[in-house]
Amino acid sequence: MIAAIQADIKQFKQLKEQQQEADAELRNVLATAQTYLSKYRATDQNLQNAHSKLQEQLAQFKATREQTRQLKEKRSLQQQQLQSIAQQLQERSENLQQLQQQTQTLETLLLETQRERTQLLGDKDPQHEKKAFQQILQATEQHCEHLRIQTQTHQREIAALQATQNTHNTQLQQLQAQGQQLQNTLLTNIKANGFHQLNEVKAALLSEEIANNLQQQKEKLSQQYTHSQQLLQQTQQQLVQEQAKTLTSASENTILTKQTELEQSYQQSLQNVGSLKKQLEQQRTLIEQLKTLQSKYEQQKIEYQRWKKLNDVIGMKNGKKFRVFAQSLTLQQLVHYANQHLKKLNDRYYIRKREGEALELDIIDLFQANHTRSMKTLSGGESFLVSLAMALGLSDLAGHNTQIRSLFIDEGFGTLDEATLEIAITTLENLQATGKTIGIISHVKALKERISTQIQVQKKSQWIQRSQSSRIDLLLTAIAIAGDVFWFSVWRKLKTQREGDLNQYRIVHT
Q1: Tell me, what's the pLDDT at 15?
Q2: How far is the CA of 271 from the CAs of 262, 283, 330, 345, in angstroms?
Q3: Domain assignment of residue 106, yes or no
């Protein structure tokens, strides 16, 4: 409650300062008006300038008069507050008298009770009972003392408020007298400038901008009035709360000592806060510097990663790393095309480039929970299918820049079962249908039955003499005979013979 009253006193001081400022403004306006009237009364041009200044002074006078009215209203409100506080003090005084009477009654009852207690106690401890009653009496006395101190405090506050009110009344009377004097001076000045009434000046001077400014000032003062009302309500509520509180039993010296300690602690806390704020500001500066360094570090890190990656690729003077890197890219594309063909041949397997190894391959068995194993673990038939898929993938890869029209397969079909062999033959037939020349060297009868265009190599009698022939020469001769698109089958026996014995065979085109 005391804090609220102090806030009211602070508000009175602010109002007093506002009144003083308004008084000073009125004096300045009056002095300015008199100066301009005496200085510019000689000529019509000067009168027009004085007329303009009078317009401004009139607006200031209106604002001052409005402030005066509001100060009157505030003074009336403060008088009501003082009356309310005086009434509260009167009620507290009455309550104090009642408490004193109650205390006297309690003391009388205590004496009677002690006598009765002495008669009735018997073997009980009277000191213990006396101590209990003394504690009650002491608490009551302390409460009464606190109420007395609080009453004195309120009386001093009321006296201070009354003194402040008297000061405000005196200032208000002075302000009213000055306002009346300024109004008389203003009327004299406007008559000297050709106006007969103040209304004519109002009609001639008032503008929308001034009206808006006045309206804004009115709203601002209205808000201040509302805020004052709220402060009054809060003060009254705090007064009720203070009255309902159970007051402390500590002595005044103890409270003053505690207050001094708290003030010292508060000052020390303020110093600590200032020091911490300074440290915080330094910390923020360091954080900004750290952010700048972090940004530079990230930029350098990106640049380092770029150069490191480039070093990992071509970081050897003999170019080995770069060659391996380029080959790994080509191998990755080759694996992609090979898997497309392998899926058609046998969808059980999938080729994958080994992680961490640039030029190594693994096979994934999709029928064994995607188990990954080395290419070296493939059986003969599996190796043939994978090799065929790789060969077909290589032809697709090379076909982007050049057209590959011929593909020769030497053996491997004998390791396939019937179903896989059928898939392989179908795949080769599809390739042949696209215009490619497919050459197969094999001894498998199923191929012989499926292929219509054949070149058979048979053991001769005396038909052709070739002392210096080779297997490649034989194939080239077969291609020349068969034409651009053909299928041919060479018996397994051809592979088992030495090149020196090739002159024992002859070529038959069927």
Answers
A1: 64
A2: 14, 18, 72, 85
A3: yes
Same domain, 378 and 509: no
133-165 burial code (b ≥16 CB/10 A, e <16):
eeeeeeeeeeeeeebeebeeebeebbeebeebb
**Domain end position, chosen among 249, 267, 300:** 249
Q: CA-based diameter of the chain, in Å?
A: 164
Residues 216 and 191 grouped into a single domain? yes
Angstrom distance (rounded) from CA 130 to CA 73: 58
| Strand-pair category, 437-441 with 406-410 | parallel
Q: Domain check: are 181 and 199 in the same one?
A: yes
Residue 54's closest CA among 43, 42, 41? 41
CA 170 to chain centre: 58
Residues 388-409: tens digit of each pLDDT: 888 888 877 776 666 667 777 7
Same domain flag for 21 and 166: yes
Q: How many domains does the chain have?
A: 3
Q: What is the DSSP letter of 368?
A: G
SS (H, E, C) 414-468: HHCCHHHHHHHHHHHHHHHHCCCEEEEECCCHHHHHHCCCCEEEEECCCCCCCCC
Query: Mean pLDDT score of the chain, rounded to an integer?
Result: 71
Return the number of other C-beta atoms located less than 10 Å from residue 217's C-beta: 15
- Look at residue 258 and tell me if it is in a domain: no
Q: 44 forms bridges with which residues in the sheet?
A: none
Tokens 């080729």 -> residue: 351
Within a domain: residue 257?
no
Same domain flag for 377 and 410? no
Could you give phi then psi for residue 454, rounded to 5 degrees?
-135, 155
Cα–Cα distance measured from residue 149 to residue 370, given in angstroms and rounded to the nearest whole number:
93
Per the domain annotation, does 284 fall within a domain?
A: no
Digit-coded pLDDT (tens) for 15-71:
667 667 766 776 776 677 666 556 545 555 665 666 677 777 777 777 777 877 787
Q: What is the DSSP letter of 122?
A: T
pLDDT band at 475 (very low <50, low <70, confident <90, very high): low
Which domain range does residue 480 map to? 405-510
